[in-house]
Write a structure and sequence with these properties.
Oligomer: single chain
Number of helices: 5
Strand content: 25-35%
Number of strands: 17
Helix content: 25-40%
Shape: elongated
Radius of gyration: 34 Å
Structural class: alpha+beta
Largest sheet: 7 strands, antiparallel
Order of helices and strands: HEEEHEEEEEHEEHEEEEEHEE
């Protein structure tokens, strides 16, 4: 075999090996590019999921501890809050509530705790709270319905309604728009002269012994934590269901003709020391508002927080957004607004 023939075969072998190596490198490069792309996609999806989880956690942490949204479907707070308004609730004032939501949804009694807050509710501020009636005549956390109302009476206040106007002993500031209170009196006097019934006159606790109406109401002592209330036939009617709720044993104080005193669980009850704070809440549209005049005072554990600002507003009749209302502050009544 000649030397040139051997050299040729060797060169062909190197050439073939080089082509195979080049082919393998191309395949490896394409494979690695696909792997790199797959890794990049996986990495992006992972970070998107992580960011999504953090956003979800921050959202619910904020909902529970800081702020939440509320919607107003009725006219009870007009002209301050209109149907179709969406507002933000500040939970920091009183402190956010913590409770077993599963039990609450199931209608079971729950213990409500509060995180530390930075203040208290003042006269004339707007609060958002759960319907305090779990049943027609039973106090409890009702998650199915929320109210947005103005706080007229605070814990420890003595509240009256005189000729349709709210009065709080020792407080002269604005409570409710006077024009709405005046309109209430006008409607009631028109009804007395034979006009169609436009206002429900009877008021909580709907008993002839108490005899309160939405025009002549009280005086009502709104309990604060530690308030001592003498219990007699009248106060048992006013405070009975709140005492039952605070005791948590399903026992309500009732007047006993045989014993000539109020009895509870077979024992006479002459006074009661309240364990919770209570509030009297009412709507700005006095003549058309379901509020504390009709269903009683609101226990503090039912309060979600203080209404802060409107974040959206839509006119239900036209479907148009009311841009001028977005961002409006929902604070206490100013003296000028009371006129």
């Amino acid at each position: 075999m000649s030397t040139s023939s051997t050299s040729t075969r060797i060169l062909r072998g190197f050439s073939r090996a080089g082509k195979l190596a080049e082919l393998r490198l191309k395949r490896l490069y394409r494979r690695n590019r696909a792997l790199r792309f797959a890794a990049m996609v996986a990495d992006s999806l992972l970070w998107t999921a992580i960011i999504g989880v953090w956003i979800w956690m921050f959202y619910w942490a904020g909902q529970i501890t800081s702020f939440c949204s509320f919607h107003v479907p009725t006219q009870s707070m007009t002209p301050t809050v209109l149907p179709g308004d969406y507002g933000i609730v500040n939970k920091w004032r009183l402190g956010a509530r913590i409770f077993d939501i599963k039990k609450a949804v199931a209608g079971e009694r729950v213990t409500i705790y509060r995180l530390p807050g930075y203040g208290r509710i003042e006269h004339g501020e707007i609060a958002v709270f759960n319907d305090p009636l779990a049943a027609p005549d039973s106090i409890g956390l009702n998650l199915r319905r929320y109210y947005c109302k103005r706080i007229i009476g605070l814990p420890g206040d003595t509240l009256s309604i005189v000729d349709g106007h709210y009065k709080v002993a020792g407080y002269d500031g604005p409570l409710c728009p006077i024009s709405a209170e005046d309109n209430m009196g006008y409607l009631v006097r028109a009804m007395e002269k034979g006009a169609p019934k436009m206002v429900a006159l009877k008021a909580w606790p709907y008993d002839s012994i108490v005899g309160w109406t939405v025009m002549d109401y009280g005086p009502l002592v709104i309990p604060a934590r530690g308030t001592r209330i003498p219990i007699d036939r009248t106060t048992a009617l006013v405070y009975g269901r709140y005492i039952e709720w605070e005791r948590g044993d399903g026992k309500r104080p009732r007047w006993s003709e045989a014993d000539s005193c109020v009895m509870i669980d077979g024992q006479p009850l002459t006074e009661y020391i309240f364990k919770e704070n209570y509030y009297f809440a009412a709507g700005d549209r006095v003549e058309n508002s379901a509020d504390s005049r009709y269903w009683g005072i609101v226990p503090e554990p039912m309060i979600v927080g203080v209404a802060w600002r409107l974040w959206d507003s839509t006119d239900h009749s036209t479907g148009r957004r009311r841009h001028s209302r977005i961002g409006r502050h929902l604070g206490p009544l100013e003296a000028s607004a009371r006129l």
